[in-house]
Amino acid sequence: MNTRITDRDIALVRDHNPIASVVLESHVDLTDTDDGNATGLCPFHNLRGERETKPSFHVTPARGMYFCFGCGEGGDVITFMMKRNNLTFAEAVQRLAKRAGVKLSNAAKQDPAPAPSGWSNLKAASRNPLTGIVLAICAVCLIVCAIVLRVTA
Ligand SMILES: [Zn+2]
């Protein structure tokens, strides 16, 4: 499926999916810190087979961002969804839209215009005045051929 996500959709999905809730739903335990942020054990460390003992995964709800000081993994709620669930950008946006009950704009469902078929190419060619001239010359040739054959026969 050809999917185009508009900037409006991306903004809408970001606004309706608080990063802390999405991270918590992905089975990452977060502890609130004094400055309004949250920390936890990095889920991306675990993916690489190394378990973290000291939380270096930070979530900043005010900015809708996450960052891990251990492995350098970071981004917004869409990036988190992609990395955590192995999704493409479009899939992550669609899943978050569904989660928040957000309707994506129609652009996401539009397919590109179909390529012109051979038949419509032919029709276009027949409208070309040059084609008419070439056909007329062919007709004249046939008549001349017929006359010549009849004379020589
Ligand atoms: Zn990490």
Structure notes:
Helix 1 crosses helix 5 and helix 4 (77-85) packs across helix 5. Helices cover 50% and strands 11% of the residues. It has a five-stranded antiparallel β-sheet with strand order 1-2-3-4-5. Strand 1 and strand 2 (38-40) form a beta hairpin. The chain has seven helices and five strands, in the order ααββαβββαααα. The protein folds into two domains: 7-108, DNA Primase, Chain A, CATH 3.90.580; 118-152. With 153 residues, the chain is α+β, with helices and mostly antiparallel strands. It has helices at residues 7-16, 19-25, 43-47, 77-85, 89-100, 118-126, 129-152, and strands at 30-32, 38-40, 57-60, 65-68, 74-76. Residues 42, 44-45, 57, 68, 70-71, 73 line the site of zinc ion.
Bound molecules: zinc ion
Distance between the termini: 66 Å
* Strand order in the largest sheet: 1-2-3-4-5
Total number of helical segments?
7
Helix content: 40-55%
Overall pLDDT, averaged? 86
At the third CATH level, what is the topology name of the largest domain?
A: DNA Primase, Chain A
CATH superfamily of the largest domain, please?
A: Zinc finger, CHC2-typedomain
List the helices and strands and how they pair.
Elements: H1 7-16, H2 19-25, E1 30-32, E2 38-40, H3 43-47, E3 57-60, E4 65-68, E5 74-76, H4 77-85, H5 89-100, H6 118-126, H7 129-152
This protein binds zinc ion.
Outline of the structure:
The protein is an alpha+beta fold and 153 residues long.
